[in-house]
Description:
Shape: elongated
CATH superfamily of the domain at 33-107: Winged helix-like DNA-binding domain superfamily/Winged helix DNA-binding domain
Largest sheet: 3 strands, antiparallel
Distance between the termini: 69 Å
CATH topology of the domain at 33-107: Arc Repressor Mutant, subunit A
Number of strands: 3
Helix content: 25-40%
Order of helices and strands: HEHHEE
Strand order of the largest sheet: 1-3-2
Amino acid sequence: MPRRVTNPARAKRDRKKWNRQNPHGRRHGPQKKDITYMNAIQDVIDSGFCDDWRTGAEISWEANKQISKHWTALSVYVLCNYMRRFIKEGKVEKYKPISGKPNVYRKI
């Protein structure tokens, strides 16, 4: 009967150490969707596209050009959640023209 490995940092088969990721370094694989969406929106804001008033649909259309086609596209409803963070940081301002019309955003 094989002896049970008590140290989970070692492999069961040959008892070699796992090649674990360094938590302080670069992670393997793609970035999380939250980070990728934030970076795409940040690039759209910094590109000068948002110097004029833009709707959420226009901003999400530009941001989706940087997101992989295998991922879910950034919708207007999700965009407003991310834009709240930029509004809180003071990078973007929001304006609602009249009721029934979509919110518009502009870079400060």
